[in-house]
């Protein structure tokens, strides 16, 4: 049965388990939305492999004349697989701290919170930037999956000879409407309206300006009291920085946007990712029957040993894109 972290919270055994899950979801838009297909069982050699077929082209339907047959047609899919991996970390504290009153729980709480923060940041980074060719202990993210796909929106292929769109130059309604045309054309590549649009703070700040000029902006408050800005009702979410770094998950890049070398390298180019979550779209994969997803182990002070270890672990998990059109990327947006 598919499970979300919100549902896993209901299976938590202790108050601390609930607190750990809350810490994962309340500051991670991806984990708050993601549904995990808990169907993976170990294969030969202990490998946890999730196999599926990605829909790459949709089929059509038509009328038929009486006493005639339909023309057979099948959907186009490609086989895909991803290996589940655990994600988390450990920390150590000295048992002497147990004799210093509040300092004992304070040291554990501090380490636990920082480890949870790093784990959810690392997961968000992998969802976008994961590349098994770089790190075999992870999974491929949307940046790699969508490269060269039908939902990769390149300005160069959409009437912009320079190869990039300069959102820093938007200062009136006319330029905002011109930018909005590209945004809407990009979103139209998807099979349905996305659940969210991800970016970095600089690119999204300019997106807010476009939405304001075109009258397509509104704000809401989520279950954790966070204010969410939306475009056409679609939340615009900053995935913030990578674990242990001040580098944005969706970082600005320098690229030869026109692909010909004539325009030179353009700095401060941002990307936007639109995602439709669901088991027929973008979702997670977990072990069969794994309804907890996140686990924690506190230091055991009643056992021998001076230095005690605590751990937090998510998974093993991975992500899957069932349909190419369930996610899209808008490349090369000049953001500073």
Which properties best describe this structure?
Major capsid protein gp5 fold; capsid protein of prophage fold; 336 residues; alpha+beta; 16 strands; nine-stranded mixed beta sheet
How would you portray this structure in words?
The chain has 336 residues and is α+β, with helices and mostly antiparallel strands. It folds into two domains: 5-57 and 77-141 and 280-321, Major capsid protein gp5 fold, CATH 3.30.2400; 152-276 and 324-334, 2-Layer Sandwich (capsid protein of prophage fold). It is 25% helix and 30% strand. It contains seven helices and 16 strands. It has helices spanning 5-10, 15-26, 29-33, 102-129, 142-146, 173-187, 201-213; strands at residues 36-40, 49-57, 76-83, 85-94, 152-153, 165-166, 196-199, 217-221, 227-231, 234-238, 253-255, 266-275, 282-287, 294-297, 307-321, 327-334. The strands form three sheets. Strands 5, 6, 7, 8, 9, 10, 11, 12 and 16 form a nine-stranded mixed β-sheet that branches. Strands 1, 4, 13, 14 and 15 form a five-stranded mixed β-sheet that branches. It has a two-stranded antiparallel sheet with strand order 2-3. Strand 8 (217-221) and strand 9 (227-231) form a beta hairpin. Helix 2 crosses helix 4 and helix 6 packs across helix 7. The mean pLDDT is 86.
């Amino acid at each position: 049965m598919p499970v979300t972290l919100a549902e896993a919270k209901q299976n938590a055994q202790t108050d601390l388990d609930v607190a750990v899950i809350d810490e994962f979801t309340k500051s991670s838009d991806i984990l708050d939305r993601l549904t995990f297909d808990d169907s993976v069982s170990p294969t030969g050699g202990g490998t946890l492999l999730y196999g599926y077929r990605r829909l790459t082209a949709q089929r059509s339907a038509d009328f038929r004349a009486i006493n005639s047959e339909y023309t057979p047609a099948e959907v186009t899919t490609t086989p895909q697989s991803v290996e589940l991996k655990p994600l988390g970390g450990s920390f150590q504290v000295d048992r002497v701290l147990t004799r210093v009153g509040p300092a004992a729980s304070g040291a554990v709480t501090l380490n636990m919170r920082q480890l949870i923060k790093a784990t959810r940041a690392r997961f968000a980074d992998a969802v976008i930037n994961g590349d098994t060719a770089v790190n075999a202990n992870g999974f491929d993210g949307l940046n790699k999956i969508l490269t060269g796909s039908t939902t990769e929106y390149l300005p160069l292929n959409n009437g912009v000879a320079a190869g990039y769109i300069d959102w820093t130059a938007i200062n009136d309604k006319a330029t905002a409407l011109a930018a909005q045309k590209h945004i809407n054309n990009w979103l139209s590549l998807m099979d349905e309206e996305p659940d969210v649009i991800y970016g970095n703070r600089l690119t999204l700040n300019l997106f807010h300006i476009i939405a304001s000029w075109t009258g397509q902006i509104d704000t809401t408050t989520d279950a954790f009291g966070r204010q969410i800005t939306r475009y056409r009702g679609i939340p615009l979410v900053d995935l913030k920085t990578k674990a242990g770094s001040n580098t944005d998950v969706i970082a600005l890049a320098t690229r030869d946007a026109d692909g010909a070398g004539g325009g030179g390298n353009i700095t401060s180019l941002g990307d936007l990712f639109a995602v439709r979550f669901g088991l027929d779209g973008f979702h997670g994969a977990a072990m069969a029957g794994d309804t907890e997803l996140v686990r924690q182990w506190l230091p055991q002070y009643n056992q021998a040993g001076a230095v005690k270890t605590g751990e937090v672990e998510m998974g093993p998990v991975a992500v899957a894109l069932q349909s190419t059109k369930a996610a899209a990327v808008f490349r090369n947006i000049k953001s500073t």
